[in-house]
Amino acid sequence: MADKPTKGLADVVAASTALSDIDGKAGRLFYRGYDIHDLAGRTTFEETAHLLQRGKLPTRAELAAYVDELHDGRALGVLVSHNLPEIASKQKPMEALRSLVSLAGADDPDKDSIAPDANLRKAARLTAQQPLLVAQYHAFRTGKDVPPEPDPSLSIAGNFLLQVTGRVPSQREAELFDTCLVLHADHTMNASTFAARVCAATLSDMHSAIVAAIGTLKGPLHGGANEQVMKTLESISPGNVAQAVREKLDAHEKIMGFGHRVYKTEDPRATHLRRMSAELAESTGDDTYYRMSKEMEEVVFESKGLYPNVDFYAASVYHYLGIPTDLFTPVFSISRMSGWTAHVIEQHADNRLIRPDSEYIGERDQKWKPIDER
Ligand code: SDX
To answer: Candidates 17, 221, 256, 340: which one to mutate for ligand 1, based on the most atoms within 8 Å of Cβ?
Structure first.
């Protein structure tokens, strides 16, 4: 007889990983042993993706080679190019990305292999392609033909802002968005990463695992929360934050962007995102959403003792950077692609099928009857 499950597998250790670690009590996050506070603002997203996928922070030469591989891996393939306009006209962003990554897999030269070297190449291609898929989707759905070509002198972060906003970002804007991508890259056994590992553990391929992860990140309790935070900020009048939040809490509504399954104190990523939101509020000359966020944070903590998670201040940061609200979760997927692919590599390298038990709570001893006697 199976034991009773803990709802939502809370506190269940579902895998061993060398990729990231969280100390929920102390509010600390590490990527392969590096404290996120040491990486944020000092290590680029490309360096972080290399760290997660290839096991080390790169030397300058290794980084140059990895960036060249990312550039070479940008080609989106024929199936994506032929279907993107139709998908952009019919599907919402995260649904579209679920379709587009699947189509990208069809044209991936390593699609039929899960060998370590093939997985490393696919990880780099997927990391390079995800921002382009989002930018091209956005271009087609806004009636433009295709976004500006990536500028080889810009990083993944800089090119994404260029392609989505249509203007070259300032160096500081590109740095801040790059830090956002570093902060979202990996986070132990979150729901979308777990989905990817369950899929990979059947020895299915990387693209299948990533499609499973995208479908999981889409949900509002996970990656979809950042968009909901922005919608909440836009739905409240700046002078009525405290009352509006209290009314939501009194109605037992979840306030998006708050609470976390693991962190019992401040999410260390929120610390950086709050500071970036304040900086962008000042530089854009409009601190409304930052001020509202600060007030929301105070009310939710005072009423429920809950802290902001990664999604809360990410919303105002992305808004200040000119990213459309319904692309906030796709942005999360751009960053987490580096972690998801690293987890698939890790799962395939030391695999056992992930197949937990379950507790049966249904009827027993049912007597069968022919259909006309039921
Ligand atoms: C991400 O797992 C990861 O690492 C995810 C992530 C990553 O990097 O991959 O960190 C990214 O997904 C962050 C979370 C984004 N989601 C949201 O912001 C949605 C709002 N948050 C909640 O739905 C909730 O906090 C969760 C889903 C994040 C965690 O849920 P749990 O651990 O299942 O907690 P719970 O829902 O059981 O809540 C425990 C208590 C309840 O109170 P009681 O009913 O016991 O009185 O806390 C309350 C909840 O009502 N609560 C909230 C709340 N979150 C928890 N109340 C109001 N607003 C909230 N946001």
So the answer is: 221
Please report whether residue 340 resides in a domain.
Answer: yes
DSSP tally for the chain: helices H, then strands E: 16, 3
Q: Tell me the pLDDT tens digit for each residue of 268-283.
A: 999 999 999 999 999 9
Best probe residue, ligand 1, of 260, 269, 332, 336 (max atoms within 8 Å of C-beta): 260
Together in a domain, 195 and 244: no
365: in domain: no
Nearest CA to ligand 1 atom 5: 190
The residue whose CA is least distant from atom 59 of ligand 1 is 254
Domain total for the chain?
2
The answer to whether residues 204 and 352 touch, using CB atoms and an 8 Å cutoff, is no
Q: Which helix (H) or strand (E) holds 31?
A: strand 28-31
Q: Which domain holds residue 251?
A: 225-320
First-to-last C-alpha distance (Å) of the chain: 31
The DSSP H or E segment spanning 34 is strand 34-35
pLDDT digits (tens, 9 = 90+) for 6-15: 899 999 999 9
Are 252 and 179 within one domain? Answer: no
The alpha carbon of 24 and the centre of ligand 1 are apart by a number of angstroms equal to: 14
Active site residues per annotation? 222, 260, 311
